[in-house]
Amino acid sequence: MQANRGLTLLPEQVNREIIQLRNTKKWADGQKLAGVAKSVFSSDPRFVAYAEYFDDRVGRLNSLLDELYSLSEKQETSSKVIDEVGKIFTKLVVDYPSEPAVLEERGVWINRLKQEASIELIEQALEFFPDNTELKNLQQMCKEQDRLALLDTGIGQLEIVILPWGEILEIRDAQGQVVSDPNVPGTTPRTLSLPTGNYTVIVRTINGDSNEDPEIVEAEVMAQHLSRIIRNFSALDEVTYFERIGW
Question: Which residues, other chains included, contact 85 with Cβ-Cβ below 8 Å and sequence gap of 6+?
């Protein structure tokens, strides 16, 4: 009698455990238990539905992991690869936070970034893994290495600030050659790394109504130093100023 009662209660106990695995998103464990329950309690439609549900979840997990494996075969860890990997992990973290396979693959990609990636790619990866201590430490280490490398060269920095708004139109070196830099032209403030020397910087303020005439500013860049160009134009009225900053 007691044995019969135990057998009657067993499906309910299994059902509660399956629901717990579902709620905690432990899909692989749930798939195993639901599969066994489906075989043992074949007359109970709940376990058939559970088995299909967990199979679908684990199938999606394996599909996302296959995408990661495919990306890991690429020889170069490029910006495009980091972006694709980050998007996959964004999905995995939401839907599969407790799966060992996800945690393992995450560790694989963190180690790969540590070995191969530049500071730019590491900072891109931090957009997807903002709380990863290893990547943060690696970011700081790369920045320090870049700083030390800069000290060994004849490179200095030029900071250009135009208040309240302005843009850099062009920069020429002492020989009159236009400096090729992806940040020029562009709005300010900007800090540029340039070889030691004298430069002619053409800037323009942007006021509330129109663009002012360009202004030519001479600048000297010294190795291992930060030089500044600051221009303060007051043509922008207060109303336009606050409109521009979104107030």
Answer: 68, 71, 109, 125, 128
Dihedral angle sign, alpha carbons of residues 37, 40, 44, 48: positive
Query: How many distinct structural domains can be found in the chain?
Result: 2
148 within a domain of the structure (yes/no): no
The one-character DSSP state at 177 is: P
Q: Which is nearest to 71 in space by CA: 126, 109, 104?
A: 109
For the chain, what is the largest distance between any 2 Cα atoms, rounded to a whole number of angstroms? 102
Same domain, 47 and 105: yes
Phi, psi for 26 (deg, rounded to 5): -95, 80
Nearby residues of 214 by Cβ (< 8 Å), 6 or more positions away: 169, 202, 203, 204
Using one digit for the tens of pLDDT, what is the confidence trace for 173-208? 988 888 877 767 777 888 888 888 899 998 887 764
